[in-house]
Amino acid sequence: MAKLEILHFPDNRLRQKASKVSVFDDKLTKFANDMLETMYFSKGIGLAAVQVNVAKRVIVIDVSENRDEPLFLINPVIIDTQDPIKFEEGCLSVPGFYEKVDRFNKIVYEAQDLQGEIYKQKAEGLHAVCIQHEIDHLDGKLFVDYISNMKRERIAKKIKKLTKEGKLETRSNVPYSI
Ligand code: QAP
Ligand code: CO
Hints:
This protein is of the alpha+beta class. It has helices spanning 26-41, 125-138, 149-164; strands at 46-48, 58-61, 71-89, 99-112, 118-124. The protein has a five-stranded antiparallel β-sheet. The two termini are 16 Å apart. The site of 2-phenylethyl (2E)-3-(3,4-dihydroxyphenyl)prop-2-enoate has 14 residues, from helix 2.
């Protein structure tokens, strides 16, 4: 297993549009498990491959209390939404900042597992919001895109400053080609 480098807003590489995964092999499983390790290490509940500079439609999530219920979502699509809500979100790529975003409290989604098997699932609350947030990443979108330009610019400036001062963690990346 390996810890991966998480990109920080306003890095342009977070704007990459991820392409569909078509090969389900050991390399994909290893990558997904490295993502999971990276997410647990960083105390996150969700991580998308674009955040570690891999433009593939891979998401890992664990919203369980004991952090022992990992979910792997390959090529996920939301097929139904219900109950609009405002939800306060954060992001491992925007560390230290939290804003309310318009989301849905209930969704139905379809995804593939690491074997390529398609599954259909209902999700609610944090689980549902997390999936909407992570699918946005696969389309190059961040939660700060939903707030005012002024707020977003201020956050960008603060994160750039922290990066310059070496106060944000970065780790050398394992180059992946999946
Ligand atoms: C997305 O975000 C999410 O600022 C996942 O200092 C978040 O795991 C969806 C994190 C909230 C719905 C609601 C953020 C860790 C983790 C930070 C995360 C931080 C340390 C964010
Ligand atoms: Co995020």
